[in-house]
């Protein structure tokens, strides 16, 4: 089978809800990434064969072929097609998988995998709230589904709390993890670790959500999301505006266009499990990906596990036995934000740049996703 390579990976800074990126149309936000990918690589934008875009809340300004609208807002010619996909928080990680699979199959040579989400302008859940408000149908889950799993609804907050309880993760431990996320993100920013991966948008050049003055006391003062629970807004990911993307090419494209690869796509895995606890799935998905790759957890130099809630990477660490010093070394979504559909290629961008900076070989990324799904991507640096 042919190989697929990442030749560039970029992201915007994370903008806080109603912050510096709130005035930017999400199509324009995504177009910033498309333009940066072709500019940085020097490739003729007309040779891009497809743009695959992850986006979760496909409503309002993110509706009506959102990926195509990103292309139309960019400097790419209108001959470049695009498609929008939704695999919840793993949407742009799945976009990367689809792009890599297209290249590996030999059907395409140059594909962009990207994601964009303005959680300020298109609030989370807009796509099904509008439907409900219009009095159309029963919502995304039929009575048969709800009866099958004996729930009134499926909730990521419930799932995150279930994971915390199952793995014995206390409020204090999760708050300490959240503080570490801010501290690592602050240190990375101050050291210039993100400079190579961030594309400034207007005057915003750094992630806006990092709390440089965070303390255990300030994090601990935040009330739980549900009464009696241990999950809070402070030990969960931030609502964020942002975009990210990767340029995926074949070996033939490397030679034809004189491109230098950052990394080779080593292994692509997606699994699914219990849709109620839902966010635990990265654990079995990681085991399957490593087995498929013929690697052990100790062979991996760096991990990116999305910090949707502190309980998720903490449970993942406990179950896999991975070295905590290798996990989310520049902080995670608790400090840097989680712009839903953009987070997949955002984490991959940070992963490959961190591996390059540290001289690492293998990196593993995984993402918990609504419905009990998880993607895992393993890359090898070149």
TrEMBL record:
Q: Which Gene3D superfamilies match?
A: 3.40.47.10
Q: What class of enzyme is it?
A: transferase
Q: Which UniProt keywords apply?
A: Acyltransferase, Transferase
Keyword Transferase on this protein? yes
The record's listing under InterPro entries reads: Thiolase (IPR002155), Thiolase-like (IPR016039), Thiolase_C (IPR020617), Thiolase_CS (IPR020613), Thiolase_N (IPR020616)
Entry annotation: catalytic residues: 89 (acyl-thioester intermediate), 338 (proton acceptor), 368 (proton acceptor)
The record's section on PROSITE patterns has: THIOLASE_2 (PS00737)
Task: Please state every residue range assigned to the domain named Thiolase C-terminal.
Answer: 259-380
Single GO MF descriptor: acetyl-CoA C-acyltransferase activity
Q: What is its EC number?
A: 2.3.1.16
Q: What does the sequence similarity comment in the record state about its family?
A: Belongs to the thiolase-like superfamily. Thiolase family.
Q: What is this protein called?
A: Acetyl-CoA C-acyltransferase
Taxonomic source organism: Sphingomonas ginsenosidivorax
């Amino acid at each position: 089978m042919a190989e697929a390579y990442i030749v560039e990976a970029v992201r915007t800074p994370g903008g806080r809800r109603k912050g510096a990126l709130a005035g930017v149309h999400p199509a324009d936000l995504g177009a910033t990434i498309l333009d940066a990918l072709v500019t940085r690589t020097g490739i003729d934008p007309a040779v891009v064969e497809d743009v695959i875009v992850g986006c979760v809340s496909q409503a309002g300004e993110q509706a009506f072929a959102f990926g195509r609208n990103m292309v139309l807002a960019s400097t790419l010619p209108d001959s470049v097609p695009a498609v929008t996909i939704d695999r919840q928080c793993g949407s742009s990680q799945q976009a990367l998988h689809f792009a890599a699979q297209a290249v590996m199959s030999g059907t395409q040579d140059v594909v962009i995998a990207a994601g964009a989400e303005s959680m300020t302008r298109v609030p989370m859940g807009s796509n099904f709230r509008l439907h409900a408000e219009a009095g159309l149908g029963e919502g995304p889950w039929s009575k048969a589904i709800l009866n099958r799993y004996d729930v009134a609804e499926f909730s990521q907050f419930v799932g995150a709390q279930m994971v915390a309880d199952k793995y014995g993760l206390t409020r204090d431990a999760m708050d300490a993890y959240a503080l570490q996320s801010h501290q690592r993100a602050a240190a990375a920013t101050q050291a210039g670790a993100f400079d190579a991966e961030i594309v400034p948008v207007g005057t915003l050049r750094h992630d806006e959500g990092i709390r440089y003055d965070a303390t255990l006391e300030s994090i601990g003062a935040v009330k739980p999301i549900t009464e009696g629970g241990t999950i809070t807004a402070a030990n969960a990911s931030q609502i964020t505006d942002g975009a990210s993307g990767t340029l995926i090419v074949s070996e033939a494209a490397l030679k034809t266009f004189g491109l230098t690869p950052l990394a080779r796509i080593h292994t692509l895995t997606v699994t699914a499990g219990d849709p109620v606890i839902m966010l635990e799935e990265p654990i079995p998905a990681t085991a399957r990906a490593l087995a498929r790759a013929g690697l052990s957890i100790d062979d991996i130099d760096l991990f990116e596990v999305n910090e949707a809630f502190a309980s998720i990477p903490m449970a993942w660490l406990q179950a896999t036995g991975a070295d905590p010093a290798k996990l989310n070394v520049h902080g995670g979504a608790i400090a840097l934000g989680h712009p839903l559909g953009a987070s997949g290629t955002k984490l991959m961008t940070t992963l490959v740049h961190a591996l390059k900076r540290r001289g690492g070989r293998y990196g593993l990324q995984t993402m918990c996703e609504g419905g009990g799904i998880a993607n895992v991507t393993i890359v090898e640096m070149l």
